[in-house]
Amino acid sequence: MIFLITIIVYILSGLLAGVGIGLVGLSAASIITPMLVALLGFNAYEAIGIALSADVLAAGISSITYFKNKNIDIKNGLIMMISTMFFTYVASYFAKFIPNNILGGISMYLTILLGIKLIIKPITTSKDGHVLNRSKEKQIVLSIIFGALVGVVCGAIGAGGGVMLLLVLTSVLGYDLKTAIGTSVFIMSFTALTGAAAHIIHGGTDIIALIICVVCAVIGSRVAAKFANKTSNKKLNKVSGVFLIVFGVVLIIIKYFMK
Q1: Are 51 and 29 in contact (CB under 8 A)?
Q2: Gyration radius from the chain CA atoms
Q3: For the chain, counts of helices (H) and of strands (E)
Q4: Please, which pLDDT band fits residue 40 given cuts at 50, 70 and 90?
Q5: Is residue 104's pLDDT more than 60?
Q6: Which among 60, 52, 6, 58 has a CA at the least distance from the CA of 29?
Q7: Angstrom distance (rounded) from CA 52 to CA 65
Q8: DSSP readout, 95-132?
Q9: C-alpha distances in Å from residue 92, one per residue of 32, 99, 157, 178
Q10: CB of 220 closer than 8 Å to CB of 14
């Protein structure tokens, strides 16, 4: 019975993470990490490694869908990707020295905060409505700096990377919402690879959890990405926000009131 419940948690966490990735480019660790930590008592460092592994393939599948719908900018995302990958790996190593409760707790509360952000202050930029006039050199410098910042956060707590990329691409670099999501998941698929490798090498992993979470995340991300590319920006923000808030609240209830 316990084994069956464990498998169900793996499946649900993977599917929900995939939906988050496909909808708004969330890191799978915003969902998989708190679920494995709160429901199954996983070590947070190991859970983050599994989540980042799910990010690799699920984000990759989502980016293909966004590319087919012309909602991805690969060329201009490469510089930020390189910067993010480097700092993700470095931060991933030092993350093992952070207390377990801090890692798991940050991921859980970040989920709710991200949901509130999308509802209260949605990203409403459009392809022709928000273009920044900035020199190519300045654009490159900003990409490197913010890529480093995203990498540190993603590697240290395994969460926020996708959403931070989304905010940087829309607010700082002037992307519209769907192109920002597509570019974000493209970058995340590579940065997550370095983070996952570091976490698994230095902290080990549960093979069964890894396989199930990754497969389910891929399925969920493909379905959600198709929906996100066909729906309006307004609806996309609301659906994603509600999804995150409800999910985060449920996790907190389970962790603190259902022991």
Answers
A1: yes
A2: 17
A3: 10, 0
A4: confident
A5: no
A6: 52
A7: 20
A8: GGGS-HHHHHHHHHHHHHHHHHHHHHS-----TTT---
A9: 17, 14, 8, 29
A10: yes
Q: For residue 130, what pLDDT is reported?
A: 45
Residue type (1 letter), 19? V
Residue type, 57: L
Q: Which two tokens stand for residue 231?
A: 């729906």
Identify which of 228, 134, 217, 230 has the alpha carbon closest to the alpha carbon of residue 175. 134
The full DSSP string for 160-228 is SHHHHHHHIIIIIS---HHHHHHHHHHHHHHHHHHHHHHHHHHH---HHHHHHHHHHHHHHHHHHHHHH
Please state the φ and ψ torsions of residue 176, each to the nearest 5 degrees: -80, 165
d(CA 220, CA 18): 4
Which residues touch 87 (CB under 8 Å, ≥6 apart)? Answer: 147, 148, 149, 150, 151, 152, 155
Distance CA 192, CA 124 (A): 27
- H or E stretch at 8: helix 2-24
* Separation of CA 19 from chain center: 10
Which residue has better confidence, 125 or 67?
Answer: 67
pLDDT over threshold 60, residue 159: no
Choose the weakest-confidence range: 51-65, 97-111, 154-168, 209-223.
97-111
